[in-house]
Amino acid sequence: MATLFPLPDNHGQRFKLHNEVHARASVILELPVRCSHLALLLTHEEKLQARAHLNLLCDRFGVTTPNKDADHFTAVFDSFQIRWEQHAEFISYTFYVQNVEGDPFDAPALEQVPIDWLSELPGKTMVAAHATIIPATEKEPDLEKLSAYFSDNPLVGAEVSGGAAQAFTDFRIHVDGFSRFLIIDHSLKTQQAGRLLQRLFEIEVYRVMALLAFPVAKQLIPKVNQGDKRLLAITQAISEEDNDDNILLDELTTLAAEVENHISSNHFRFGAADAYYKLVEQRIADLRENRIQGIQTIGEFMNRRLEPAINTCHTTDKRFTLLSKRISNTSQLLRTRVDMSIERQNQALLTSMDLRAKMQLRLQETVEGVSIVAITTYVVSLIGSVSDALKKIGWNIEPDVVSGFAVPFVLLIVALGVRRVHKMIQNTEDE
Predict the structure, then answer these.
(1) Nearest partner of 421 among 364, 358, 383, judged by Cα
(2) What is the CB neighbour count within 10 angstroms for residue 292?
(3) b/e per residue, 72-81, with b = 16+ CB within 10 A?
(4) Which positions ≥6 away from 112 have C-beta within 8 Å?
(5) Per-residue pLDDT, 129
(6) SS3 category, 175
(7) Burial of 283 (0-12, 13-18, 19+ CB in 10 A)
(8) Ranked by mean pLDDT, which of 16-30, 375-389, 416-430 comes out on top?
(9) Is the separation of the CB atoms in 135 and 31 below 8 Å?
(10) Alpha carbon 56 to its chain's center
(11) What is the reported pLDDT for 386?
(12) pTM
């Protein structure tokens, strides 16, 4: 009997996070099996409609509906089994019909799904694929015979799952609107078969989702080329002396805004393409392919056909990022140049103001000299008037002599007074 310990309270997400590794368990299948896979691109509103539409199918067959917050669901109906998954941008449906025989693609699993329900699925079809697992009848496959199942198109395939099966496809959409996968079972186990089918479907879905960025990249290539040319023109103009830096700065700011708008608008798409491509590479690695003489493996096919498109997306995204950095560097250089120009203008203005201050000081000193003479003249005039009045009342003095002797003394006293005022003003400024 298990011992119960008094542990602290559980975190609200503990059990949900713990069980996440078991959330997408592989479907257990009885071979041979046929299945059909749909991946639909949806808006947020269409995702809500898709969940309600799935509930309608469950109600129709008396099956318990998924939880409202579930993002995966597996159930068995009368004649088929369904696996439903909700992803960030798309929803996938996989329908299985087990223990079937006959031509691999004559009666696909989707025929067992109610047509009226199927026709009202919300969203846009991104991937539609049929897959069939058939038992091996010979050790080495007859590639010409297998090619007939794919309209005689060149085959892509390999031994997978450590030699337990052989997987073939042509990565083409056939006249029925579906791509095709054919798996020849040598020693697949039931869970192993479910994982293999899921990996093949995910390779098909993720490669298409990764390629959503390719048309965007092709549209942006002329714009990044144009941005390079505009930046080159601005950079060349900066090196010339007869250009208005403010006009160049406005042009550079406009270019920077356009480039940042392109980066912001398409950052998610390019980031998603990189993530999807990494998932494709991981799923291919999980197949554990061994070459079948005469045909390309799935990994080789993807490297030659998908990788160049993804590289174009990476290059376009990187070019915009580098262009943004170059614009930032050029902008900093131009702003430095404008700041230096403004600083030179300010320095010239300060020099001019300093010259004017010196001129005003000289003028003030001249005025002060005249003021001293004027004050002295006025005071001496007052002394002369007082002396003249004293003489008239009987004093024995000569007014002109008194006035003459008073001039140097008055001049000295006025000069000292003006000097004292200057010192008082200087002390006030120092404080």
Answers:
(1) 364
(2) 19
(3) ebbbebeebb
(4) 79, 80, 95, 97
(5) 97
(6) coil
(7) buried
(8) 375-389
(9) yes
(10) 39
(11) 76
(12) 0.77
b/e sequence 183-216, b meaning 16+ C-beta within 10 Å: bbbeebeeebbbbbbbbbbbbbbbbbbbbbbbeb
CB distance 243 to 237 below 8 Å:
yes
Higher-confidence residue of 430 and 287: namely: 287
Distance CA 218, CA 297 (A): 28
By the 8 A CB rule, do 248 and 237 touch? Answer: yes
Residue 431, SS3 per DSSP = coil
Report d(CA 164, CA 161) in Å as an integer.
5
Entry field: residues in the chain: 431
Tell how many helices (H) and how many strands (E) occur in the chain.
10, 8
With CA atoms as reference, report the closest residue to 181 among 211, 202, 212, 209: 202
**Structure confidence at residue 24 (pLDDT):** 63
pLDDT band at 56 (very low <50, low <70, confident <90, very high): very high
Residue 363 pLDDT exceeds 80: no
Rounded-to-integer distance, Cα 402 and Cα 388, Å: 10
Note whether 198 and 133 are within 8 A (CB): no
Residue 392 to residue 119: CA distance in whole angstroms: 135
* Distance, C-alpha 61 to centroid of its chain: 45
- Do the bridges between strand 156-160 and strand 81-86 make them parallel or antiparallel, or are there none, so unpaired? unpaired
Q: What is the mean pLDDT of the chain?
A: 86
Alpha-carbon span 424 to 431, nearest angstrom: 11
Q: Rounded to whole angstroms, how far apart are CA atoms 58 and 73?
A: 11
Rounded Cα–Cα distance for residues 197 and 183 (Å): 9
**155 phi and psi angles, rounded to 5 deg:** -90, 150
Please list, in sequence order, all residues whose beta carbon lies within 8 angstroms of the beta carbon of residue 297, skipping any fewer than 6 positions away: 156, 157, 158, 289, 291
Predicted local confidence at residue 385, as pLDDT = 79
Percentage of residues in the chain having pLDDT higher than 70: 93
Tokens of 13: 């997400």
At 351, is the secondary structure helix, strand, or coil? helix
